[in-house]
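Title: [Solved] HRDC domain-containing protein 3D structure

Original question kept below for reference.
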Amino acid sequence: MSESSSTPLPSVYEALRAPDTSSVVAAADTLPVTWVSAQTDLDAVLSAVENAQVVALDTEFIKRDTYYPRLALVQVNTGTHIYLLDAPTLRLDALWQILGKVSVAVWHACGEDLGIFYLLSGCPALDNIFDTQIALSYLTGDLQIGYQKAISDVLDIHIDKEQSQSDWLQRPLSDEQERYAIADVRYLIPLYERLQTCLAAQGLTDAVWEDCQLYARELHGAQHLDDDQMYHSMADFRYNPIQMTILRDVAAWREALARATNQPRTFIIKKQAMREIVEMQPKTIRELMHKTTIHRHVIRLYGDELLAVIKAAKDSHPAEQPASPLPPYRSKNKTLSNAVQKAVNQHAAEIGVPKNVLMRKKWLNDLYEVVALDKEDDTKALPEGLQGWRQSWVTDTLIPLIKTHQAELKQGMGLA
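Solution (posted by the thread starter after getting help):
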């Protein structure tokens, strides 16, 4: 399953390579593995998780044609034992509760996994997450390092990922599927331990931990949006209030229908068709057929409902219509952009954090809006990512810098 080859590394990764990968591989490779499909056998897993300080986790699931993901497998590494939990045959409520109480829950690129965890568990946002992908972004500047590359570069362990899109609900799993599933957690704790050592050496442990918990909260919030808030990610500053209302109400209708029929929201209306509805505002089934790319089968089943939603949105009282988002800052004059980028680069170099980790594009756009609307004295108005360890730098350096260019900022956002 694994092999060590002492692969030459780019310089940015050289300091990350564990000094003795052979012993790490040997220890991880000897961990016993137990398949758990009977409810009575789950108690031993719960006890092992409860007594572990660090637990590594992964899931396998199917979500190609359903709204609700079908959880197929939960992989758990307690540091001394690996468990493969046959999710369709088990009640996992107690596991979800216990996982929220362990000291450290290690995942790699936990977005989809935590989304499923929150959906199935009903638990509050976790505060014990360590995402090795986030940690690696601090150490390399690469925001999207996959697990396969991570353990190759850091532990000199090489695995294949050919089974990632296979049918995880089939039983029995193939030998290749089992090896793949086991490998996804077998080396995750050694990876975590090595990254912890590297982060501590650079004084970055607390910052990474904070960003991991921020991500966990963001994922929880995304999973618990009210239906009438689903439209925000599709909103366009060029939409007028009626268009915004149509977008809001159609998005909420689509979400409720997707949930009720257990199908992906894009099976009902794709993003392109959402834009077409907002812009064309169809009034008849014929217009739905010819002015949008909505599938004809969907129109036949739900066209009348959809038209009623559009009409009600158009007839809504102005007081009930959402405001359009502010335009993003855009200007041919690069004075502000260049000054901000210089400040970001300088601070990133001073604290040893990659610039794309220090400041995300969305945070900066939100910060521009805060300053343009003179809300900078309200720290709660700041993006949550800029309220933690970044906040003193943002409030002491970045906001005063942006304010010196406030006229250009407002002009670039169409507010002047």
